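During the no-cost extension, the postdoctoral fellow (Dr. R.K.) reprocessed legacy sequence entries with the updated structure-token encoder. One reprocessed record is reproduced below for audit purposes.
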Amino acid sequence: MDFLQGLTDHLIKNGVPPERLESWAEDGELTTTMTFKEDGFERTYIANFEMSSVRMDPNVLDALVLSWLQIYDPGRDGKKLDKPQFFCQPLDGGKYDIGYKIQFKETCKFVPSETGKWDIGGVKMSIETNYKEPESFGELLEFDAVTQDTELTN
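Re-encoded structure tokens follow.
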């Protein structure tokens, strides 16, 4: 479940303490065709991300999730996936409990590979998904329009 793992890694890389983050998949569905060996299969699931007692601005977390989705899972509307859902509970001391439910659809295909674990017609094969790492994600920056000069003038 590459999308689940990818977004989990992204949240941790961008400041969510790993000990405060739980992620898992549920309501999964596997779909195959008559030509399973040639076409592979699809896996549709709900990925859950729950962060407990984190000291992070919910707006920043929303931006992290949505920007990741735009880059790693473009064309979500064409896949007829549910819109991401969230919850946010303010706690004392500027902390929050925050969670997301995001539906993903992964296409899994068999591809020739010398290290493959599947033997199909005498050819070693591996399973490859439609999840692709972009060459560069970039960095999400926060600006304070009051104290930082944005070089915009009228």
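The helical segments are 2-13, 36-39, 58-72. Residues 2-129 form a domain with the STM4215-like fold (CATH 3.30.2000). The remaining legacy entries will be reprocessed before the final report is submitted.
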